[in-house]
Amino acid sequence: MRNVWILARKxxxxxxxxxxxxxxxxxxxxAIGVLFAGDVLWAGLxxxxxxxxxxxxxxxxxxxxxxxxxxxxxxxxxxxRQGTIELxxxxxxxxxxxxxxxxxxxxxxxLTVLATTLxxxxxxxxxxxxxxxxxxxxxxxxxxxxxxMVFTALGVAISALFDxxxxxxxxxxxxxxxxWYFIGLPASLSSGLLxxxxxxxxxxxYFESMIGGAVELTGLVYYLSATAFFLxxxxxxxxxxxxxx
Amino acid sequence: MIQVQGLTKxxxxxxxxxxxxxxxxxxxxxxxxxxNGAGKTTTMRIxxxxxxxxxxxxxxxGYDVMEESLEVRRRVGYLPESVPxxxxxxxxxxLLFMADLHEVTERYERAEAVxxxxxxxxxxxxxxxxxxxxxxxxxxxxxxxLHEPEVLILDEPTIGLDPAQIREVRALIKEIGxxxxxxxxxxxxxxxxxxxxxxxxINNGRIVVEDTPANLEAAxxxxxxxxxxxxxxxKSLLPVLKxxxxxxxxxxxxxxxxxxxxxxxxxxxxxxxxxxxAQNCDLLELRQAGMSLEDIFLQLxxxxxxxx
Lengths: 245, 308
Known about the structure:
The structure holds two protein chains of two kinds. Chain A is mainly alpha-helical. Chain A has one domain (2-244). Chain A is built from 13 helices and no strands. Chain A has helices at residues 2-15, 19-45, 53-72, 74-82, 85-89, 95-116, 119-127, 134-161, 165-182, 185-189, 193-201, 203-211, 217-244. The two termini of chain A are 27 Å apart. Chain B has eleven helices and 14 strands. Chain B is an alpha/beta fold.
């Protein structure tokens, strides 16, 4: 656990030295800011329009599908490319700690960026009567946190597969789009066993429930299990590197 | 401190090392010599726990490198050949990070001490990406020394350093080697001669020779070599010299120079001198030539290569 924290701290700090991380954070904040400003202006023009939080969260997720790969691609692939993976794998740290430490650092950085978006709900809270539903605010940000955990874990796993950053980035975006948009598609197109499996495996379904205020235990377990699965997969890939080295 | 038995590593169909056996004791600096691709780095990577062997066993500081890899890694300081470093960190931050991973208790004090050892105190706050190759090499060495390991494994530790730094690093390794075990690889044979108590020559994945530099030189020069230089017509002397009793070989060198190899204990110089004069050649020089470790290395690796 100690080593996980050491590695997470190093990754977290290194994002603050990376222009890519700043650019990604700025893009996210800008997009949400523009949406927020638009909603406020719209509400000024049409008093019956009530700005809501869920649109903001959905925009944040849509952007993170493309932003998170830029943050996770370097986690292991760049270490392999630069050879620093040899330092980590010959230090007294087990492979699982390397994976979890890197994942935790990226998750904490993303959550730090997401935390800055709280400024918009806080402002919104002062603009609408009788204020924002705090329960919805909590479940909305819980959904974003769980999304970050799962998809960062998947990003780490894909980063462990490649040495090339561009390949990692493209593969991660493809995997994110598949997992987010397409895994639940059979449920809406057909019925039967395939549709049932697709519905249960749909990340988007649980996510939408959460931002609507309903936190299902199944959804929580599914997100946490998927996170654990991807982290274990990344660890296995990293271990297999030793054999392939 | 290091015990290696029957170590073999395959990369797919290619065998990188085969049946490597050696040991290194405490207070010993052992040099690993060999041409590129001979298997030096592969052996070192197995010993540091970076990759497993296909067959054989290796123990470092009493622990099996495959079964007790974490224990081994706690006790080994490793400088990889390419000196990988985190370019976005300062020298001090990097050392503190590595000290944390190695559970060094007084990490600031240790970082300062190793920076002093490698003479980089004034670069502590410099970003690693702004360092020269030689400085990066020294940061890598500082990292390897940080946790005061029982065993140091250094892959080409002086590569990229200037002559003054090479001298300092060699002195440092020699000093460290008095109390710890050092296994280093090098292409520079003079370096092995200066620093190592023992030398392992590896070629095509096998250890060809293991001995002290002095013994190695003595054993392989027992036959003796003579160098002679004449004013002209050196080539015409080849058959004449080959016929002299006690001469085992003659090679033509540049500038009318000839290298004559002789049987152990035979004194052929007077006869050679007479033969040269009899051929109406002006003898300019006739001297006993020692065999350097470099010659031995080339001879051994060439003969091994020829066998394959």
